[in-house]
Amino acid sequence: MAKRDYRTDEIIVHWDSSRCIHTGICLQSLNSVFNLRQKPWVDVQAARADEIAATVEKCPSGALTYTRLDGAGEAPPQTTTVVPTRDGPLYVRGDVEVRNSDGELVAAGYRMTLCRCGHSQNQPFCDLSHRDVDFTDNPLVIADHRREAADPSGVSRKSAG
Questions:
Q1: What one-character DSSP code corresponds to residue 10?
Q2: Distance (Å, rounded) from C-alpha 48 to C-alpha 50?
Q3: Range in 54-58, 133-137, 139-143 with the lowest mean pLDDT
């Protein structure tokens, strides 16, 4: 998998193709910079550093990150969130470290998409394998979690019976 840097005097955009899940958010948000019809597909000369940084921060997988040469940088969200996407990966935002079963650091970052289907060849990250295996959410599990979250007593209705 490719890792590339695209730089100006103000910003370096880092791209890790192994983390990209092709949501197209960068293409839709700032097409003058992120454009698959041009070579290279990232042209950091085509917009201001602030616009580029704001677009990079929308990347859910963390495939796109940046370094500001003035010392400013991306700040982690105040709250860490883990949100399952419908029939897809977990979107994770926050100051997050992923460690293996031996406690060794696998990755750290503010944005990542983690595999939920179990078929990714890039564990723990999503590689879109869920599409190939027709992974779908379990509606019963989702309903149970929603019901438990809505019950302020903290007692599951399923276990209270």
A1: S
A2: 5
A3: 139-143
